ABC-2 type transport system ATP-binding protein
Amino acid sequence: MIVEMVNVTKDMKGHKILNGINFTIETPGVYGVVGRNGSGKSVLFKTIAGLLQPTIGNVKVFGELVGKGSFPKDFGALFDTPGFVPRYSALDNLKLLASIKGVVKEEEIREVIKVVGLEPDDRRPVRKYSLGMKQRLGIAQAIMEHPKLLVLDEPMNGLDESGVQEVRKVINEFKSEGTTVLLASHNREDIELLCDQVYLMEQGELRVFREDV
């Protein structure tokens, strides 16, 4: 089992953001989640990532419980606006993050920076990057350790058309390698082109919206 959520409810500030969700992913592929702003997509993804603890229920990723300080293994994610050390370059930021696990070398980091359309030898500090460049760098940090589960919350935000095409290519390449991708996007075309199965998040509940696999 790749992802398993059992009766997951999340209350925040007196509101039920997730309401008794039962959700499983057994087969690698690209799984889309659509819904209005505030529908709970980001909370769902952060709960799977172990960044938020369910009020009720439990979450397992690759058979192991997440939450309460336990995070998924073989996992990469992009949430909100990526946070980096403003005075560091793109390469130095990713080297810093990579040092936590020590599973990727500088050569691999340089390559992944190129994959997302940035230049590894650009010594400009990240604070001088545009929103789109920061988003590209955020995607680079999510994929650089070649995770088996990749969670992308609105990865196309701030990207121009070439950036969108590059990210779509990255997602398809990871899919072909057997990686499972969870994707939230406001862009209907992203969902239609990339996803094998689509879920609708509405009023804290998750249901199948489109199924191809």
Observations:
- Residues 161-176 form the longest helix (16 residues).
- The chain has a mean pLDDT of 93.
